[in-house]
Structures are given as structure tokens and as C-alpha cells.
Amino acid sequence: MIRICIRHVLIALLAIFVTAAYADNPGNVAGTQTSVQLGNEETLTELFAYPNNKDPQTLAQTIELYLRQSVKRDGLGDVNVNVQTVSGQYYAVLSGTVPENYPDRITNFLNIGGQGYAAKLKLQQDGKWDEKNWRFYLPLGLAMANQKSAQLLHFPPDTSLTLQDYLNSATSRRWESLLQINGATSADTPLFERIVDIAPVAAPANAGAALGATYAYFKDYAFNMLGYSISASAGKFPLPVVAYGAPVRQWVQDNLGVNLPVSASPAYVNVGQISHVPFLGANHPSYIWYVAKTSRTLALRAMRDDLVAACWQVKEGGNPQLNIDETLNQCSSYWDQRDTQVCELTEIQAYNKTPDEAHKICSGTAKKLLKAARALRAEDLIRTERSMPAHYFAR
Known about the structure:
Number of domains: 2
Number of strands: 10
Strand order of the largest sheet: 6-5-8-10-9
Number of helices: 15
Strand content: 5-15%
């Protein structure tokens, strides 16, 4: 009993200390302040993949970095995060205009992360974990409360871990550009990027095939993290999900019983206890770079389909009550009337052309080129995607 009382006193003293520190900070915006218990050093070392940067950095500093990324990407510009320790426990002290549910969002994220870590331990026990090349890596630093959609992907590249930014990858940057072309503002773009990887493993790009053995272990984690990600602060409707790439769409078919063709036939799917979740299948964002090496027609089709998927994501994310089929039809119609723009974007993104060079290439030829691209048969597209090397599916 005495130990419990002392611990409570220490926590209270911590809150007083932090409050005094913020009072001297002219950049702090007045508002609420709350403390969130995160866990002990051993647990948080695993959940935050610490250490993950070559620069000297404490565990508390690493946690602060990722939580500050989250509040920024949630659009909570006046919220500050400081991490303190009391009696071996780590606490995140949030100050500013803190949404009422934010502490619970942090706690729930870490609890689900713990499920993922338990799966990683089971993989180790079964001799299926690559100790040399793999690191358990949760989707840290993403929007937690105000997100507009979820992105279901394969696995995060190990470079995003060492760079300490889950969105710092070529595929994320490319998809961000497509979201913004379809009307997302630069400030809102991170809200569409609540990523859930079916294998939460930072690994080299060529590890894609080997990670298939982890799917069954991480299934419960992936389900729960996906459920967490499609439940946002505003509204009672679940957020839309885009499933990128053949391995992920196959995972959806195997585990949710729904076939998702690329940029066609969206579906309402039940995810655990959450029903009527809008889903759309899409190319992996790096697919265009693979097909561009062999076929300009395939690259054009990939760009067209990617633009349609990003359009659907922006519209459904902005209003999850929209009819998923009508939204897709509107997006398809919109981009099928803009052959020149699709052609120019293909030249810029797939072939590194300048805007002027792209305009010259596409001028007068775009309509004919896109007609051929749209005429490609679905089975041919599927065959091409299945031949894509596994390393292309890393973000």
C-alpha cells in the first residue's frame, strides 16, 4: 500500500513539474494537459524498435519523436509531447488542445502493438524469424485520431526505420502526389496514410517472398490494427481501405473472403466486429516502375488505374457515406476523359521526363495510347502483376 501511494505522489509531482516547465514556454498554446502511461523500458524498447537511429538518442527521445509526428499528422499543431519516467514507467505528457480520446488512442495502439510483438516472439520460437535482417516495426508516427482512410500494404522497408519516418519511402511519396492531384491538400494528405502492413517487419526490399511465412502469425495483429485504423474520431461510419498489390489483395481474399480486382468492383467488407467497411483493390504504388521497363502501354494503364484508385480514396475518405460503386464510376469517368494528363503523368513518374518533355511526347498521341491501355484484358494485367519480383512490394 505504501509503495502504491509513493508512486501516485511521484506521478503527481511529475505533472506539477511538467506544468511549470510549460508555463515558461512562450510557444505553448494554453489548453488541456494529460499524462498517458506508456509502459516500462523493456516493453517500449520493442514497440518503438529502439534503437533505430545512428545518432545518440534515448528511448524517451525516440518515443517523443514518433508521438510528435503523430500529433502533427493528425493536424494538432498546438499539441506538444514530452516523455518522462517515474518509478521505471514511461509517461507521455500531452499539453495544448488535446482531443479527449487521444490518450486512449495512444494506449490502444500500444496494446495492439503488443499483440504484434507476441507474434514476433512466436516466430522466433518456431525458428522463422530472420534475426540478422528483420526488425519488428509498428506503423509509428502516423495519424491516430483524425485519419481519413487506411492503406493496407505488405511490409515497411528497413530504410524508413533508420530514417525514423514511416512515410519516408518512394512509394509513399508517389501515392501522396496522386492523392494531391485528386484534390487532397498537402496538410490533409497524411490523414489518408494510416498504413497497416500485413507483415510489420522492417526488412530489405528483397525479403518480400520470405515474409509470406509470417502472415499467419501476424493475422490477429493485422486485423486489430486495421480495425483501429478505420475507426476515427469523427462520425460513426468506418473509414475506407485501399489494398495495394497482389500479396495484400490475396491476403484480403484469404482472410476476409473478398476478391478485389484493381480499381474495379469495390466491396463492403466486415473486419472483425466492424461491418460495412469500404474496400478497393489497387496496384502497388511501385508497380508502374516495374511495367515501365517493358511496356509503355502497361505503364499508361497502371497510371490510369492508380489515379482512379487515389480519386476513390480521396472522395470516400472525405465522406465514407458515399456509395462506393458510384464513387468509382465517377472517378473512372473523370480520368478516362483526361488522356493527355494521364499520359504526361506517366512520362514524368515512370520515365523521369520533365513536364515539357512529357507534353511533347503526349501531344496528339495520348488518346490513341490510352485507348490501347484501356483495352488490355484483366487476365493479362493479373499475369503481369504476378510476375513482378517480390522486392517491388516493399514500400
